[in-house]
Amino acid sequence: MLYYPEKDQPAIVAALNHGLPLIVCMCAAWCNNCEEWRAVFEEAARENSHTGCFVWLDIDEHFDMVTEVDLETLPVLLIHHREGVAFLGTFRPDKSTLLALIRGSGVSGRIDDPGIRDFLTEPL
């Protein structure tokens, strides 16, 4: 299932509390790449809801959440496990690449946490 912060916060919190990794696609409605990617991301979310908490984050609607993220090129993907950020960056939207990144083993290297997980779990 694909979640949206503006309407699915309780479900996002529940999924994260169950230990699922947070998988956020940061996009914008005006971005052609993002619109092409949305269907693939939704499909990955439907097929892999047991693997992660998939969130579609519109950067214009939730600018406060993305102030610490380089958004020069979209889409930007965040994969955040309990141990920390495993991936944060741009990538060519591809379902097999996405799934490989999600299945990656833990945190590799030091990636600064942009705090999106904290924003998504704050009480409304």
Automatic annotation (TrEMBL):
Domain of life: Bacteria
SUPFAM superfamilies to which the protein is assigned, alphabetical: Thioredoxin-like
Occurrences of domain Thioredoxin (ranges): 21-82
Pfam families, alphabetized: Thioredoxin
CDD domains: TRX_family
Name the UniProt record assigns to this protein: Thioredoxin
